[in-house]
Design a protein that fits this description.
With 153 residues, this protein is of the alpha+beta class. Helix content is 23%, strand content 42%. A hairpin with a 2-residue loop joins β3 (42-44) and β4. The two termini are 27 Å apart.
Length: 153
Amino acid sequence: MAKEFTQKELEDLITEFMKARATCVIATCSDTMPRASTVEFFPSGLTVYILTEGGRKLENIRKNPQVSIAVSDAFTNWESLRGLQITGAAEIGTKGSDIFKGGLEAYRKRRGKQDAALPDFMSVIKVVPIQIEYIDTRLAKRGYPIRNILSLM
């Protein structure tokens, strides 16, 4: 029988994985037209912040806040496949909002620039995860399942 991670252990694995990566793909959808955008992201715990100038992803989120985010390593072989899939609800914040402030704080922390500012025209997408699927094929050698699901509802 495979070992199991505690919720805290799994949260820590996921948090460390996100901290070590800078880009993700956010998938949005409205009016039956999906859109997948590669973007830089800024994690704060399990919450994901994305800074954006706008575009179709914001239009889609306004119509349908359910999103999916993929974060992965470059594929080299099946023995070292790693990535995660976040299912969550997105909110959009503009300058002065708590979401904008949270995104700016995550940006500053990752960049190590406490005095950094964002242009007034920027928006911030905040994604609060509902579920995160973490895949790491290397875990099998340690007796754990390669797919671990963190449910946050």
